[in-house]
């Protein structure tokens, strides 16, 4: 489980101006993150704009990401959806070479009951060749996975090893920490509350902001995991404004604007998403400049 301690980053998918996948940009991004000291990579989660990618594109991105990573860091693939059988088939056909786990979002749109969510993950756990990380993000799915369901899955399936929790509910986090198996990981799914979640016992974060600021963010997380909150707190507070700006016009428009400004990759997104506004881009540029003075 130690491989998923610390800072994971949910990779953006760089696109060329014509909307095609920018593999050179993806290579730059992966090396930028590894050089920045993050702990593991997550390919094709929400931040990767997976909803607008074809099956063939996803297979190529997963394979290319594994090739460029070259086993330097643990690698997680995002494979989820709201059709259990379709997700199971995608998992069974997935080329797991170079990957350590699968991050699978709780079913969206259908609004299943808690028993339905349990049965969905039970089905996936029984077919997956890799360990599974649950992903609860009710702001997107319109369906919350309860602490009881999370811990029931954690106790019943040894290959369900963690949950990425983006509910924003500390009552929920408290219950999971109290009732989970000792080796089951609670991972923050929200950049702004990483510090208090680690203080509660979370193992780290799967971050969006870390795409642009891998060193600053992973350094802060390491301080938290060492219990050095005296130094972690000012580091955390220094990132508050950048984090606010990164999400001000949705994800990943803001973080792609930052990556363009940093010279890592372009800022093209696929419709229905649109690029960050000029005003937001200028504000992000000022904040990057401010942060660089204290790096």
From TrEMBL:
<comment type="pathway">
    <text>Amino-acid biosynthesis; L-lysine biosynthesis via DAP pathway; (S)-tetrahydrodipicolinate from L-aspartate: step 3/4.</text>
</comment>
<feature type="site" description="Part of a proton relay during catalysis">
    <location>
        <position position="109"/>
    </location>
</feature>
<dbReference type="GO" id="GO:0019877">
    <property type="term" value="P:diaminopimelate biosynthetic process"/>
</dbReference>
<keyword id="KW-0704">Schiff base</keyword>
<dbReference type="GO" id="GO:0008840">
    <property type="term" value="F:4-hydroxy-tetrahydrodipicolinate synthase activity"/>
</dbReference>
<dbReference type="InterPro" id="IPR002220">
    <property type="entry name" value="DapA-like"/>
</dbReference>
<feature type="binding site">
    <location>
        <position position="206"/>
    </location>
    <ligand>
        <name>pyruvate</name>
    </ligand>
</feature>
<feature type="binding site">
    <location>
        <position position="47"/>
    </location>
    <ligand>
        <name>pyruvate</name>
    </ligand>
</feature>
<dbReference type="Pfam" id="PF00701">
    <property type="entry name" value="DHDPS"/>
</dbReference>
<comment type="subunit">
    <text>Homotetramer; dimer of dimers.</text>
</comment>
<feature type="active site" description="Schiff-base intermediate with substrate">
    <location>
        <position position="164"/>
    </location>
</feature>
<keyword id="KW-0457">Lysine biosynthesis</keyword>
<feature type="site" description="Part of a proton relay during catalysis">
    <location>
        <position position="46"/>
    </location>
</feature>
<keyword id="KW-0028">Amino-acid biosynthesis</keyword>
<keyword id="KW-0456">Lyase</keyword>
<feature type="active site" description="Proton donor/acceptor">
    <location>
        <position position="135"/>
    </location>
</feature>
<keyword id="KW-0220">Diaminopimelate biosynthesis</keyword>
<comment type="similarity">
    <text>Belongs to the DapA family.</text>
</comment>
<dbReference type="InterPro" id="IPR005263">
    <property type="entry name" value="DapA"/>
</dbReference>
<keyword id="KW-0963">Cytoplasm</keyword>
<protein>
    <recommendedName>
        <fullName>4-hydroxy-tetrahydrodipicolinate synthase</fullName>
        <ecNumber>4.3.3.7</ecNumber>
    </recommendedName>
</protein>
<comment type="function">
    <text>Catalyzes the condensation of (S)-aspartate-beta-semialdehyde [(S)-ASA] and pyruvate to 4-hydroxy-tetrahydrodipicolinate (HTPA).</text>
</comment>
<dbReference type="InterPro" id="IPR013785">
    <property type="entry name" value="Aldolase_TIM"/>
</dbReference>
<dbReference type="GO" id="GO:0009089">
    <property type="term" value="P:lysine biosynthetic process via diaminopimelate"/>
</dbReference>
<dbReference type="GO" id="GO:0005829">
    <property type="term" value="C:cytosol"/>
</dbReference>
């Amino acid at each position: 489980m130690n491989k998923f301690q610390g800072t994971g980053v949910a990779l953006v998918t760089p696109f060329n101006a014509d909307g095609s996948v920018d593999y050179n940009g993806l290579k730059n991004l992966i090396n930028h993150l590894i050089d920045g000291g993050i702990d593991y990579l997550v390919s094709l989660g929400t931040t990767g704009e997976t909803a607008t990618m074809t099956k063939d594109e996803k297979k190529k991105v997963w394979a290319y990401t594994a090739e460029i990573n070259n086993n330097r860091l643990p690698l997680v693939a995002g494979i989820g959806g709201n059709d259990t059988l379709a997700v199971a088939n995608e998992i069974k056909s997935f080329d797991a070479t170079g990957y350590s786990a699968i991050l699978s979002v709780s079913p969206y749109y259908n609004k299943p009951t808690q028993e339905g969510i349990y049965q969905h993950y039970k089905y996936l756990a029984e077919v997956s060749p890799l360990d599974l990380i649950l992903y609860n993000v009710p702001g997107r799915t319109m369906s919350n996975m309860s602490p009881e369901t999370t811990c029931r899955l954690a106790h019943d399936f040894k290959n369900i090893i963690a949950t990425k929790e983006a509910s924003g509910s500390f009552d929920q986090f408290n219950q999971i920490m109290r009732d989970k198996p000792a080796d089951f990981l609670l991972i923050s799914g929200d950049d702004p509350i990483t510090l208090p979640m680690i203080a509660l016992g979370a193992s780290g974060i799967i971050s969006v902001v870390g795409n642009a600021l891998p060193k600053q963010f992973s350094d802060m997380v390491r301080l938290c995991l060492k219990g050095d909150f005296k130094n972690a707190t000012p580091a955390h507070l220094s990132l508050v404004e950048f984090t606010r700006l990164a999400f001000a016009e949705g994800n990943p428009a803001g973080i792609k604007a930052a990556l363009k400004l940093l010279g890592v990759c372009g800022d093209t997104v696929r419709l229905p998403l649109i690029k960050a506004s000029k005003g937001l881009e200028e504000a992000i540029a000022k904040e990057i400049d401010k942060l660089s003075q204290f790096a």
